[in-house]
């Protein structure tokens, strides 16, 4: 703003100066051309007296001073008498005699007589003093230039007014520049404060404070940036809490079988005369804990690969009904031991392209969970049907059901509804989480419906044509 005003002020000052000088030139040129027509014959006849009378009268009218010079620069007449007979050299007379100009105008410093460039006066501090304009016109006799008529008139008032305008413009320019600077600082502070707050918040987040949030204010891009930052911060905090919880749960789950194994192995070491049957039982329990530990590690590695998006599906044509029947056969002996009844309702074979191994794991885990958490003599029903563009697999049981407050967490890692019972059945707390991830990889969905004392149903929906 300040620079723009400076250019505008300079241009305005220049235009005002040009206008004043042009007006001066026009008025003096008209007067000189009129006088040169009358004075030229008088100079040619050397009628000095008549020439002096003519120019002295004109000098009084224009409040100026006339000089008549010949082509060599010698002064033939000075209306004030000081320079008569002397040589007088100036840019104006040279322009007439040597460069063939008819009229030439210039402004001179009264103290030094120096010709000044009027355009160089813009925003230039000049000392106060007298200023004179020189306006020269040629005197012609026939086709020959016989002399120069020079009018010297004071222009101090005009130059003083021009310099006054210049100083006012300069002061206004400085004031506008100062105001523009202050206003720009204020607006810059207002605009950058949210970004500075965000920068400080990011620095605090870099130190581990993931609960950091910034104030959402204003409108437009700054507001959207703050909202996006808070959303990102919230997700990072959630991921950090999940990671910490995951590490804590994994450590606890790994520690439990290790602690049990340590107790049993120490018993074997410090009781060498232990009964053979009890020794065998301890070794069998140790072996079970090792299997459990191996299962936890295997499930953890599976989840890590899924989190890293390194699990790839190998799709092939398959029939879900066949997978259900295969898993029913695998679990038949387990269910007969618990006197459980398995009913298959395969309404549609549901042929689709899927990863056989991973889909088989989904079906087996759901059916095994239903058997584990259903009482002896319970009933388990597996239904397969085509609903629109989806294959819908439902594994239902008439077990104890899931409490309402546990349903939202049923697919969380290491989450157990009944922790003591889950450990007794050998569960790792990761099965349903893995099932959900595998279903999502196939582009499907999984949900649970349960009522305490009635039973639970896990419903898997898989698209026939995954996107």
Concise summary:
The chain is of the alpha+beta class. The chain has 11 helices and 13 strands. Strands 2-1-6-5-3-4 form a 6-stranded antiparallel sheet, with helices on both faces. A 5-stranded mixed sheet has the order 8-10-11-13-12.
The CATH homologous superfamily of the largest domain is called PAS domain
Strand fraction band? 15-25%
The description of the largest β-sheet is: 6 strands, antiparallel
- Give the neighbour order of strands across the main sheet: 2-1-6-5-3-4
The tally of domains stands at 3
- Mean pLDDT, to the nearest integer, reads 83
Unreliable stretches covering 5 or more consecutive residues: none
**Share of residues in helices:** 40-55%
End-to-end CA span? 57 Å
CATH architecture of the largest domain: 2-Layer Sandwich
Oligomer description: single chain
Radius of gyration: 53 Å
Principal-axis shape equals rod-shaped
What is the CATH domain class of the largest domain?
A: Alpha Beta
Would you give the CATH topology of the largest domain? Beta-Lactamase
- DSSP E strands, number: 13
What's the helix count? 11
Q: SSE string, helix = H, strand = E?
A: HHEEHEEEEHHHEHHEEHEEHHEE
């Amino acid at each position: 703003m300040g620079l723009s005003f400076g250019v505008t002020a300079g241009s305005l000052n220049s235009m005002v100066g040009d206008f004043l000088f042009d007006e001066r030139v026009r008025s003096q040129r008209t007067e000189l051309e009129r006088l040169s027509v009358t004075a030229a014959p008088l100079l040619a006849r050397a009628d000095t007296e008549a020439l002096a009378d003519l120019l002295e009268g004109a000098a009084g009218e224009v409040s100026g001073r006339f000089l008549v010079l010949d082509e060599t620069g010698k002064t033939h007449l000075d209306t004030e008498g000081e320079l008569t007979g002397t040589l007088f050299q100036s840019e104006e007379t040279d322009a007439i005699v040597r460069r063939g100009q008819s009229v030439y105008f210039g402004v001179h410093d009264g103290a030094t007589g120096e010709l000044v460039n009027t355009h160089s006066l813009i925003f230039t501090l000049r000392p106060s003093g007298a200023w004179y304009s020189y306006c020269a016109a040629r005197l012609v006799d026939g086709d020959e230039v016989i002399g120069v008529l020079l009018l010297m008139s004071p222009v101090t008032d005009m130059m003083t007014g021009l310099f006054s305008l210049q100083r006012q413009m300069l002061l206004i320019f400085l004031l506008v520049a100062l105001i523009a600077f202050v206003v720009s600082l204020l607006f810059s502070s207002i605009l950058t404060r949210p970004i500075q707050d965000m920068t400080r918040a990011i620095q605090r987040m870099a130190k581990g404070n993931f609960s950091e949030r910034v104030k959402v204010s204003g409108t437009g891009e700054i507001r959207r940036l703050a909202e996006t930052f808070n959303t990102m911060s919230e997700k990072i905090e959630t991921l950090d809490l999940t990671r910490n919880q995951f590490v804590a749960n994994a450590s606890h789950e790994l520690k439990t079988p290790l602690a049990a194994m340590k107790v049993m192995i120490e018993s074997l070491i410090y009781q060498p005369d232990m009964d053979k049957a009890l020794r065998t039982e301890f070794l069998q329990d140790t072996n079970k804990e090792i299997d459990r530990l191996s299962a936890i590690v295997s499930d953890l590695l599976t989840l890590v690969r899924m989190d890293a998006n390194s699990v790839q599906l190998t799709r092939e044509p398959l029939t879900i009904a066949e997978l259900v029947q295969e898993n029913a056969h695998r679990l038949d002996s387990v269910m007969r031991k618990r006197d459980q009844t398995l009913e298959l309702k395969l309404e549609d074979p549901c042929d689709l392209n899927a990863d056989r191994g991973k889909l088989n794991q989904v079906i087996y885990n759901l059916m095994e969970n239903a058997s584990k958490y259903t009482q002896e003599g319970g009933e388990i029903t597996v239904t397969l049907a085509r609903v629109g563009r989806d294959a819908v697999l439902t594994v239902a049981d008439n077990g104890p059901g899931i409490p309402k407050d546990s349903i939202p967490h049923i697919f969380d890692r290491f989450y157990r509804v009944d922790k003591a019972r889950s450990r007794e059945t050998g569960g790792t707390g990761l099965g349903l989480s893995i099932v959900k991830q595998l279903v999502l990889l196939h582009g499907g969905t999984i949900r649970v419906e349960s009522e305490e004392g009635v039973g639970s149903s896990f419903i898997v929906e898989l698209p026939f044509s995954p996107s």
